[in-house]
Amino acid sequence: MTNQSNNSVKKTVLVTGAAGFIGFHLAKKLLSEGHSVIGLDNINDYYDINLKYARLLELGIEKNEAETYNNLCNSKTHNSFSFIKMNIEDREALPILFKNQDIHIVCNLAAQAGVRYSIENPEAYVDSNVTGFLNILECCRHHNIKHLVYASSSSVYGLNKKIPFSTDDNVDNPISLYAATKKSNELMAHTYSHLFKIPTTGLRFFTVYGPWGRPDMALFLFTDAISKNKPIKVFNNGQMERDFTYVDDIVEGVTRIINKETAERIQSNKFYKIYNIGNNNSVKLLDFIKEIEINMGKEAEKLMLPMQPGDVERTWANVDDLIKDYDYRPNTSIKNGVKNFVQWYNKYYNS
């Protein structure tokens, strides 16, 4: 995606989930545009914490610093990036952070991720995605935050059969607790926008992939297995399609939303907005795997398995509203995106 010219006022942005996949890339992008970023993450062990520390190191924060600077009076700053280790559900600490820092924009990407894991450990999803999000909303309410941007998910569409998925579609039938918590976020944001006139923008992410990606996602799992000459698990016998969206395209879209002033929305009393953010295309899973095989230089051994609980056959984002309002135009092909990931994977794990 071609970068927009950025004449916006420099801001202080709180990015929660800053050691996570999308949060890390967003922090890098915002810093490159001259914004100040306060990164917050609890660095939980849902997946390899060393990958999270490695992302923070790319932002200038050493592992020992990330562990040490976990209180509000002693955060670590490097080139306009500050990091604090904290849970967003901490009802005592988070409000103090908002009180002590002059935060303009909040981008809440902190969440317990993963559809399948929500079946095994539902409490973690309620703690982070519901209680934590309520805490974020309360802090935005009491500390004059200009705009709350937050992560929702394509999972809210459940078993929706209408393709492509539109924000006008009914999303009252989630099929995983993860999806239910994300739908809850949208409802909670609507309430706070209505009652307290807080501009909120929810983004339904569609299968984000790219360098530094999560180890529980398909691209990582497939690449890792092929690298180690292990079979890959292909669910629904390969009859799956996803709107795979490259992380740089996602982050460019999120940044455009952060940079655009909300005065027009406030004047028109449109405090609450929901957008799909995806690649505006649906790719067959087997075609996606083929690109990985090409870049790995070998064919995968495929274990064809039935559909997993909580999963859906096909996703495809209608992003017309995001194009209209923010000139969002993702343009990274699967060919280039997978190539970039495999190059990163080989460098990170095999160098």
Q: Overview of this structure, please?
A:
Helix 6 runs parallel beside helix 7 (177-196), helix 8 (218-227) runs parallel beside helix 11 and helix 11 (285-296) packs across helix 13. The protein has helices at residues 21-32, 49-58, 63-68, 93-100, 117-120, 122-142, 177-196, 218-227, 247-259, 263-267, 285-296, 320-326, 334-350; strands at residues 12-16, 36-41, 76-78, 81-85, 105-108, 147-153, 200-205, 208-209, 232-234, 241-242, 245-246, 272-277, 283-284, 302-304. Helix 7 (177-196) links the parallel strand 6 (147-153) and strand 7. By secondary structure, it is of the alpha/beta class.
Write the layout of secondary structure elements.
Layout (H helix, E strand, L loop, with lengths): L11 E5 L4 H12 L3 E6 L7 H10 L4 H6 L7 E3 L2 E5 L7 H8 L4 E4 L8 H4 L1 H21 L4 E7 L23 H20 L3 E6 L2 E2 L8 H10 L4 E3 L6 E2 L2 E2 H13 L3 H5 L4 E6 L5 E2 H12 L5 E3 L15 H7 L7 H17 L1
Parallel strand pairs: 1-2, 1-5, 2-4, 5-6, 6-7, 7-12, 8-11, 9-14
Antiparallel strand pairs: 3-4, 10-13
**What is the chain-wise order of helices and strands?**
EHEHHEEHEHHEHEEHEEEHHEEHEHH
Please state the CA-atom Rg, rounded to the nearest Å: 19 Å
Mean pLDDT: 92
Reported CATH architecture: 3-Layer(aba) Sandwich
Shape: globular
The domain count comes to 1
Helix content: 40-55%
Largest sheet features? 8 strands, mixed
Distance between the termini: 30 Å
Q: Which sequence of strands runs across the widest sheet?
A: 3-4-2-1-5-6-7-12
CATH topology: Rossmann fold
CATH superfamily: NAD(P)-binding Rossmann-like Domain
Give the percentage of residues in beta strands: 15-25%
By CATH reckoning, the class would read: Alpha Beta
Q: Spans of 5+ residues with little confidence (pLDDT < 50)?
A: none
Continuous helix count: 13
InterPro entries: Epimerase_deHydtase (IPR001509), NAD(P)-bd_dom_sf (IPR036291)
Domain NAD-dependent epimerase/dehydratase: 13-278
Keywords: NAD
Protein name: NAD-dependent epimerase
